[in-house]
Amino acid sequence: MIIKPVIQGVVARSAHPLGCQQAVLNQIRYVQAAPQISGGPKKVLVLGASSGFGLASRISLAFGGAKADTIGISFEKGPSEKGAGTAGWYNNVFFRQEAEKHGLIAKNFVGDAFSSEMRKQVIDYIKKEFGGHVDLVVYSLATGIRPNPETGELWRSSIKTLDKPLSGPTIDLERDVMLPLDVGVATEDELDATVKVMGGEDWESWIAVLSDAGVLAKGCKTLAYSYIGPEFTYPIYHRGTLGKAKDHLHKTADVLNQTLQDLEGEAYVAVCKALVTKASVFIPAFSPYILSLFKVMKENGTHEGCIEQMQRLFTERLYRNGDHVPVDNARLIRMDDWELAPETQSAVAALMAEMTADNFQHVGDYQGYKQDFLQLNGFDFAGIDYDMPVDMAFLMSLRP
Ligand code: NAI
After folding, report:
1. Could you say which residues bind NAD(+) here (predicted)?
2. According to the annotation, is 373 in a ligand binding site?
3. CA dist., res. 377 & res. 87, Å (int)
4. DSSP labels for 93-137?
5. Is residue 348 part of a domain?
6. 141 CA distance to ligand 1 centroid (A)?
7. Has 268 been annotated as catalytic?
């Protein structure tokens, strides 16, 4: 089977296993050569481990100095008669292979992280095969739906504003065009459902269940990821439904920080940089900002991808040989410091003012944006022959 990129709007419908392997190897090489984490965790659970920030966290913690054993939970599809499977499936496969080559445990659970069944399986595994405890829990799920744990009914998130509708340009990656998109005002129910899906409730529930089961080590830390962004993106993000869900996540970190006191544990939210991931390309009216930001930060030499952000987070913020974790006055770890630097933001604002549907490919870093999107799915890596057929029987023999 020859696998070519198939894009529908902003969704990739195909993934190339060899490119996913390359992406994992590149990230491993990056953290191996970067300044190393010292005093890091040894036993880590990552929820949402197969792509974006969760995968980068896992790679950084395993290969960037801490040599951590990891458990990764993700929701992915393997190869079948219908197709080659999702990128995250192969990221899991190849991460595990590399970790095991280095003598590290890398256990993957593929299924619904919101379910009680998953909680049971993971706790059982920690008790029986993972040494009994974890000393870091990374919560990096990104999804549009979450089942109500009591009724099974689905909550669905909506990316909407809270005061007035807006219209903003959005990129269609399939056709390489920028199109206007209307974003409506959320109803009360839509806002509540978004907070249920993307707020901190499930994170809090996981920590409670792990704590009750006695599998959190003394001094255990937990971490989730957030975004705030500059003021001109507030209408769609920070002051919209997503921002409200993130406010809930931030408050949850404070609640968890209290409940973990008995274990001398800590809970944090790290506010990260805007990046291209499977989840972020969905955010309407956001692409002109990312295109301008990438262009400016690359020119300034301050651009980072998920892996650079995570390695900096663990070396310079979360683990500093027992030193305190630097936070802002809302107790947030700010990994968006370079993004929000005033000189960066004024250059970004100038580019955005120039950007139109006719010139966005030149004014902003569209090439970089599209390449990131393709590479998330294993395409556009030099050195991989995409005309070569992939052996499906071999792919089906690979286990996550
Ligand atoms: P992503 O889409 O790359 O990764 C999401 C992960 O969640 C995948 O491993 C996926 O398999 C897993 N997942 C989704 N639903 C699941 C389920 N029901 N059960 C088990 N696993 C499930 O997302 P990304 O962008 O890395 O997002 C992670 C966090 O980082 C989110 O909280 C997001 O808001 C935050 N963030 C993202 C930024 C960006 O620009 N992409 C910027 C700042 C924060």
Report:
1. 48-53, 75-76, 112-113, 141-142, 246, 275-277
2. no
3. 5
4. HHHHHHHHHTT--EEEEES-TTSHHHHHHHHHHHHHHS-S-EEEE
5. yes
6. 4
7. no
